[in-house]
């Protein structure tokens, strides 16, 4: 199997006030790459909709050597690197114009029966496809620890435009909410160096969520919960580096 490759020129609206690629944009680009490649393999949205299935992200683990900046040309490469009984592993590598790797990422995707909201075995539901036995980085998607001390907290309301084709909050919003829960001075000083996200429950239109943040120097831990029933929607851990 050939890896899937696409080039992006980072536009003004995809970058923050200091010209760096936004966290939410990074996740959206990775999702776009995963969706496009899955479609090329015959495993994408059209296949899923016609078979009552849906791909849902379970985990992301991203390492950032350097955050790309506005108008920078980057090349992103992705490939399925491993197939497990209930989860497919997809890796990514992001290159700058000189060929240096600036970001590596790995992710775990679960195939669900859309009506029953239950995972299904990949080999039972998917046509056969090949994987590239290579990883851009190694992660066991370890269970992220609980927030034990709340240093900052912020509430968000789920908007119409936060909902994706699977009828729940798009995965890119959770790391965005996590980063937005921190104080302005912290964000001005630091950029993300490593991001781990575990998606636990769905969130829907009209819900209000709370993001609790624990700050330990250059590492932050976040728990995102629904205010209606206190169910935990996601956990996020971010390691930061000075700009």
Give a brief outline of the structure.
This protein is an alpha+beta fold and 243 residues long.
Query: How far is the N terminus from the C terminus?
Result: 38 Å
Q: How many extended strands?
A: 11
Radius of gyration: 18 Å
Largest sheet: 11 strands, antiparallel
Based on CA inertia axes, which overall geometry fits?
globular
In the CATH hierarchy, the architecture of the largest domain is: Roll
CATH topology of the largest domain: Thiol Ester Dehydrase, Chain A
> Which structural class fits the helix and strand makeup?
alpha+beta
Q: H/E order of the elements?
A: EHHEEEEEHEHHEEEE
User: How much of the sequence is in beta strands?
Assistant: 35-45%
For the record, the CATH class of the largest domain is: Alpha Beta
Notes on the protein architecture:
With 243 residues, the chain is of the alpha+beta class. It has two domains: 4-125, Roll (Thiol Ester Dehydrase, Chain A), CATH 3.10.129.10; 152-242, Hotdog Thioesterase (Thiol Ester Dehydrase, Chain A, Roll). 17% of the residues lie in helices and 40% in strands. The protein is built from five helices and eleven strands, in the order E-H-H-E-E-E-E-E-H-E-H-H-E-E-E-E. The protein has helices spanning 23-40, 45-50, 122-125, 173-180, 184-189, and strands spanning 4-9, 53-64, 73-83, 87-95, 101-113, 118-119, 152-157, 190-199, 208-216, 219-226, 232-242. Strands 1, 2, 3, 4, 5, 6, 7, 8, 9, 10 and 11 form an eleven-stranded antiparallel sheet that branches. The longest helix is centred in the N-terminal third of the chain and has 18 residues, at 23-40. The chain is globular and about 50 Å long. The model has no long low-confidence stretch (mean pLDDT 96).
